[in-house]
Amino acid sequence: MRPQRTLSEPAAVAAFVVLSALPFLGKAYHIDEPAYLAIAGHIARDPLHPLSFLYNWYGRAVPMSEVNAYPTILPYLLAAAAGLTRGLEWRTRLAFLPFDLAAGLALYGLAARLLKRPLWPTLTILAGPAYLLNIQHIMPDKLLAAFGLTSLYLLLRGLDEGRSAWIRASAALMMLALLSKITGIFLLLLAALAARRRRQPWRGVILYGALAAGPLLLFLGKEFAGDAWGGIAATGLWFLNRGAAFHAGDIPGRLRALLCFTGGCGLATLPGGFLLLKDGRRWAALAAAGAAAALLLPVFDTQAVAALDRALGAAFAAAAGLSVAVCLRPEARRGEERRLLLAWIFIVGGLQLLFYWSIVTRYVLFLLIPLALLQAHLLEETASERTLRRLYLGSFLSILALSLTLAAVDARYAAAQRDTADAARRYVAAGKRVWFTGHWGFQYYMEKAGAVAVDRGAGGWAAARAGDILIVPVNNTNILSIPMDLRIADVRAAEIGEAVPLRLISAGRAGFYSSVFGFLPFAVSGEPLERFYVAKRL
After folding, report:
1. Which of 142, 280, 287, 510 is the residue whose CA sits 20 to 30 A from 70?
2. CB–CB of 124/392 below 8 Å?
3. In 267-360, which ranges are continuous DSSP H helix?
4. CB of 301 within 8 A of CB of 249?
5. CB atoms within 10 A of CB 354
6. Which residues sit opposite 389 in a β-bridge?
7. What is the domain count for the chain?
8. Which residue range forms the structural domain that includes residue 289?
9. E-assigned strands of 53-112?
């Protein structure tokens, strides 16, 4: 029999969600947040055509539908809240904090259905860097977690307790999850699997899927049917092929990054795996960890790798390999709950490895949830109460310390973009025209300061005139380099330092938000957080 639950545990989860968010409410807009703010601004003027405007995100102004082709309700919520938030970072993050609370409580609800002691595993997942850093951004993943996890929780309760109203509510929330982010399809697959495993008829499963996915399919059909891509079917194939690593040479690199991201962001959430292995199974798990670490051998390198990065990556990959080995042992396949978690692991892992455009922590966080819950479920059968208490407390404190440190470094990086734009504002105020390249929060604040983004389709850097100011970041995306034949002077480099030797974005080394930057989620380094080059056009 499971222990009696009290209101104190959900309250503890809610308190943690709020307390972990408060220090970062004023964080500068970061990563893809500005793109959704731009859509929200356009919605305020033309709500029926949210993507019908030009936007420079890849170094060239193109229709926003080419930058973000799929529906998301986030910009509509941002537009609705604009009157209250007035674009201020802390107000915007505070306005969306209820979604974080919903996601945290839904996660606890799922854990409580699976575990005798759900509180500490839940808190440890919430404290992990993949979750804590990503969920606080005003991006669709926030809504996907809130709507999707709540939908899955209501579905499981509705199926187990025979409550059809809860199943309908689950379908409605699943619809919102899919309209928040199309990659939430894994939740729909899990819902269908859970329903079939509980002997629900196919008719009910199909009806649930139609209610949940219908609006998304209608949107895709309206947007793409009959266009140059050849309709919705061709569009779906284009989307899959765009991110798929079907080329044999890509698989080792993507698998290396996936294992490193999973192990690096989940080391402290999965510390008990080794305790679950005994005798011959322990050697098998060690072999799996070794095989994962072997992906860090030089033969799989596509560029030069520093010795420290290789060692750190091997440790992260080995930890992930050990976790997967634990979840593959026979005991992990006994019982409906464990089989559902195992399916969750393979569905999300497969989608991330084979179909998503790169390895990203905002998707890996949905992989770490079932990994942690499944191992906690297995630990409850083998570990003593005293061992569990020590294990959970140590895991929580260590992962929280890592996450808060990474979050502080990341906030400092985001602030550097805003601060540089504030400096550029002085040039604009003095009558100078300022040009820049780069995106994310840097683009948002530079445009707000009156600077102009370089556009390849409008002459690129050649559009700058004598006396104009040119600003180029280093650790950013889609940067257009200044041509060698462009005459410039007064070149200055402004470095943004950080005493904490952890870097989330470091070209060729670490890419917390995308493995395009590196196979590590974070690197140990004392290099500058960011470097900006400022020059004058002659």
Report:
1. 510
2. yes
3. 280-293, 307-327, 336-354
4. no
5. 15
6. none
7. 2
8. 244-383
9. 54-56, 61-63
